[in-house]
Amino acid sequence: LLCFGYVREYKGLKYLLQAMPVITEKEDKVRLLVVGEFGADRDEYRQMIEELGMQERVTVIDRYTPDREVEQYFAAADLVVLPYVSATQSGIVQVAYGFTKPVVVTDVGGLPDVVEDGKTGYVVEPERPEAIAEAVLDFYRNGKENLFEENIRKEAYRFSWERMGEVVDGMMD
């Protein structure tokens, strides 16, 4: 799993961390990679990881990620998780799709507008670790990776410049 981007309270990392013991109890091989610059609350997250007993399951890369390094983190992930508490939108979904990675997002702001629940990822209720765990477990238990990747490739066309040109041409006729 990958949680990518600046780590701020509104991004809900604590709910993903709380979901990890449930996930790893049922899917032992799952690991979480948290990549992003932390704010002043860095120690609170590290303490939470320890209290949950997830030190061996959660890797934290606490720094800004230059563009040339982004691909390696997405390539290492099966699923990108954005457990936001509030948001207007997130460019991380489009980055994930660019690497053909499905996402788990919460039902806040514009996130559900770009994720087709059950097709390109999952849309779950915010602030509910059990909902995050359920989505992740469904992904692994039901082997959704290939299906989601195929759907993401289809969706990528919908947002492409080529498609935009077709829509504009159609409007001119």
Write the layout of secondary structure elements.
Blueprint: E1 2-4, H1 13-26, E2 32-35, H2 42-51, E3 58-61, H3 67-75, E4 80-82, H4 91-98, E5 103-106, H5 111-114, E6 121-124, H6 129-141, H7 145-158, H8 161-172
Parallel strand pairs: 1-2, 2-3, 4-5, 5-6
Describe this structure as you would to a colleague.
It is a single chain. By secondary structure, the chain is of the alpha/beta class. It is 49% helix and 13% strand. The protein contains eight helices and six strands, in the order E-H-E-H-E-H-E-H-E-H-E-H-H-H. It has helices at 13-26, 42-51, 67-75, 91-98, 111-114, 129-141, 145-158, 161-172; strands at residues 2-4, 32-35, 58-61, 80-82, 103-106, 121-124. It has a three-stranded parallel beta sheet with strand order 1-2-3, covered by helices on one side. It has a three-stranded parallel beta sheet with strand order 4-5-6, with helices on both faces. Helix 2 (42-51) links the parallel strand 2 and strand 3. Helix 1 (13-26) crosses helix 6.
